[in-house]
């Protein structure tokens, strides 16, 4: 028996630890095109802002591979998988045989079709190497354009303004983070960005990146020009399925897996951002690109690769996103839909915002800004599909807590832990 994992982020960590719960002996190989010890990608914005060092970004201690009998093959790209021979072919020609294989290649940046996007000083913002490259040009009083007011785009803005960079954010949509924010939430984020002197240009897009070899500015579709010293692309991410495209592996937007993280090919599993796992709120397979989900999927895959029969069917979207002066947590459904009622509480004086999405007798989503202390309780209500009909009107109260839950339910939750 030998296990091979392609990918070295949190899903891979979960898989190693899942395997070792069952199998303490047989070897594990981890393959990654990045040369680094397993690290947290969401922390690259804090690295760029100078708030953490590279050593602070590691998911596990330096002895993680040795302690778990893992052979890391880092800085080498997996080029091809021969599912019939059960081999992973690396770019340097080596062939790594497997008995059980996990594909955990994560996501990749979406490159917008903009003229000049290949120029120097145009960066993605998804990997540690991206942050290291931006760090070299993001000097105080330099000028940056961030294309995309997405989650990663705003985290790039946060890091850059903290380095003293003059930032302009450009997005084609009419509000910030439109998949999560409504107009009120977007307005709160806009005010905060303006406080830090970041310029935000909405309802427009970049026609062309100006400059010869290096970017010196952007031309907008409305004819305006925005000068800059460098550009950060943050137009979104996609499942990184490049390695398995054109093979017999079933792919939609990501690799399709069942609740045991099995693909359609025997002994091949997928987990993390590259997989389309079961979203229990939407009751269908979707991408769920968040760290806790990736770990649980990886752990489930690892245990099953080692012979267990574990199921993970509680995946759903959840994001926790401090952004300069705003604390933001969202989970589950983030937009109105058929059969969904919405409850909002906006306290302009306290600069807090709460929004709840309710379907039938269940809470199925929420957005909290600057009042996030009870996020864990709301998440628990979603995850456990608790009937909230008897205390629905209490949701969002400043003192909301388990005391508002029916006594029988409180006793049940205490017993379940």
How does this model look, in words?
The chain is α/β, with parallel strands linked by helices. Helices cover 22% and strands 28% of the residues. The chain is built from nine helices and 26 strands. A five-stranded parallel sheet has the order 3-2-1-7-19. Strands 9-16-10-11-12 form a five-stranded parallel sheet, covered by helices on one side. Helix 1 runs parallel beside helix 7. The protein is globular. The mean pLDDT is 94.
Keywords:
single chain; about 425 residues; alpha/beta; five-stranded parallel β-sheet; about 20% helix
Could you provide a short overview of the structure?
This protein has 417 residues and is α/β, with parallel strands linked by helices.
Largest sheet: 5 strands, parallel
Helix content estimate: 10-25%
Question: What structural category do the secondary elements indicate?
Answer: alpha/beta
Distance between termini? 37 Å
> Would you count the extended β strands for me?
26
Low-pLDDT parts are none
Describe the secondary-structure layout.
Layout: E1 3-6, H1 10-22, E2 28-32, H2 44-48, H3 64-67, E3 70-74, E4 78-82, E5 87-90, E6 95-97, E7 100-103, E8 107-109, E9 122-123, H4 128-137, E10 143-147, H5 151-162, E11 166-171, H6 183-195, E12 199-202, E13 206-210, E14 217-220, E15 225-227, E16 230-233, E17 237-239, E18 255-256, E19 268-270, E20 275-279, E21 284-287, H7 291-305, E22 318-320, E23 328-332, E24 340-347, E25 352-359, E26 362-369, H8 375-383, H9 407-416
Helix pairs in contact: 1-7
